[in-house]
């Protein structure tokens, strides 16, 4: 009987020592840890410009819901606002406004644009995005999320934005 008690105590002590030594052993850095530390310290490309417009300021320029479409705001942060365009519960498109002061190459990409929508330089980005540049600062995009939402639908929705109001935003 005494032998069983000693064996249990010995097992508990051994298990405790095992847990203590494994828990206190320093963890070897993983293969991505150094890259993560470097990217966390990196400032370029991550910060939003100080003078970027607050995302909430953009909401009033989005087109209203209607004709069976529902507009659901999904993201709002400094320099950016986004909404889903839904019909019958399905995502049809994403609507977005972004301040390009943080990404000047975005505004520069409209320099050779020959297409205009509502008087603003426009461009197709891939097969699913149409965008305009307002006041050489604000990019307004419509991104198809359904194959039935075509380039002409994207252009029509871009024209529903209050682009002239956005142009007056300071």
TrEMBL record:
Residues 29-49 are annotated as: Disordered. It comes from the Bacteria. Residues 1-26 form the signal peptide. Residues 34-43 have a biased composition (Polar residues). Keywords: Signal. PROSITE patterns: PROKAR_LIPOPROTEIN. This is Lipoprotein. It comes from Chlorogloeopsis fritschii PCC 6912.
